[in-house]
Amino acid sequence: MDKPTLPATNVSLNLLEYQIMEQNFSITQEFYRTLIIAVGILLNCTVVLVVSSSRQLRYPRHIFWVAISFFECLFLLEYALELTVVLYRDQQLCQILVLLYPMDYSILLQCLLLAAIDRYVSIIRYEWYKKTVTIQMVMTIISVMAILTFGIFTSPFWMGYRSIYACTLNLSNLNLVLSWDVVLGLICVILHVLIFVESRAVIRQYLPSYRKPSVTVRFINSSVRPSNFNPVTGMDALSTERVTFINPEIPSTTQNATQPLNDNAQLSSIADHQVNLNRQQAASKVNRLEVQAAFSLSVNILPFWLCTFPLSCFAMATYWCTRLGGNCDTFLFIWTYMWDIFMLHSIYNPLMYMISCHDFRRALCHIFRKLANKFIMQIQKN
């Protein structure tokens, strides 16, 4: 059976159908988008490869970054596809673009939301998080979310309400998708504010534990010479001193004017103090790392969400302008440039992750050294 073909000229279109191939890009826009796509794919693929090949990064929080970088790559490939469709007027590629256009962006937003939830839970319920959340669980949740999003967003096509052969974007459907994205963005921004508040609370909780009360130690030379006085050197073979400990918070310590210095007792006291300090540090080290990871996530992702709101609001304003029959040429002209600016998040996200994550930088340097050693050994063999 031959595949049906529905040319764009034979499809009934209304004002809410946006023709993709009618776009026109200047040479500057072509160069700019090509550069963003190339650099963004390089950075995001680097994140995926380093995290997947390094054992020390196989934790849930890094798996979320792998998912984010993966969908960033799909996002960039979609815009490479759009650039190809507009330049070469390819009908078949345009049909694929229509099917995928709103989907990958929404999946990316949901991955960012799941990453924020992961960081928030790791702070407020760390013990439960450590025992329950695994890499397999994270991958399962992301996979189910992506499949459900794909099925829901493409349902108008496989249910017969829309056709991919028209090669148009329906502004009504796009408005619904962007409204959902705004809801996701609001939830995520609220979570980031809560993460910041909880992070400050945890930091303030741990800082006082390292501040110990001051203790004054006064050394007093003993007036009694021991029997092992050396007349040649004029010095004691073993000097005896008395020490006074004055603790302002414990009055009983100031009542004893002096007490003999006992090396064993002093060493035992110092050892006990060090053990207690090590226990406090061990108990808080992992949790403080989770706080640092959560704070880094907020720094990296929050600007992306702040850019999402004006873009989504602008798209919805374009929809209502078209729906009410207004003059929307200005909206359509500005729309292309807003997307050009918005595409920078595909470079910003992986770059900030590389800069802020010490474990990632260490794993990346390890891989570089390993490859360099192999290259040198290969040259020496030849």
Count of helical stretches: 13
SSE ordering: EHHHHHHHEHEEEEHEHHHH
How helix-rich are the residues, as a percent range? over 70%
What is the strand arrangement across the widest sheet?
Answer: 3-6-7
What is the overall shape?
A: globular
Rg, please? 32 Å
On the 0-100 scale, what is the average pLDDT? Answer: 75
Uncertain stretches: 1-13, 237-262
Transmembrane segments: 31-51, 63-81, 96-117, 138-158, 178-197, 294-320, 332-351
Membrane topology: Multi-pass membrane protein
Main location: membrane
Subcellular location: Cell membrane
Overview of the molecule:
The chain crosses the membrane at residues 31-51, 63-81, 96-117, 138-158, 178-197, 294-320, 332-351. Residues 43-353 form the G-protein coupled receptors family 1 profile domain. It is found in: Cell membrane. The protein has 382 residues and is mainly alpha-helical. It is 70% helix and 6% strand. It contains 13 helices and seven strands. It has helices spanning 27-53, 60-88, 91-100, 103-124, 126-132, 135-153, 155-158, 171-206, 252-255, 263-323, 329-342, 345-356, 358-381, and strands at 17-19, 168-170, 216-221, 229-230, 235-236, 241-246, 259-260. Helix 2 (60-88) runs parallel beside helix 6 (135-153) and helix 10 (263-323) runs antiparallel to helix 11. It is globular.
What are its keywords?
382 residues, two-stranded antiparallel sheet, single chain, 70% helix, globular, mainly alpha, 7 strands, three-stranded antiparallel beta sheet, disordered N terminus
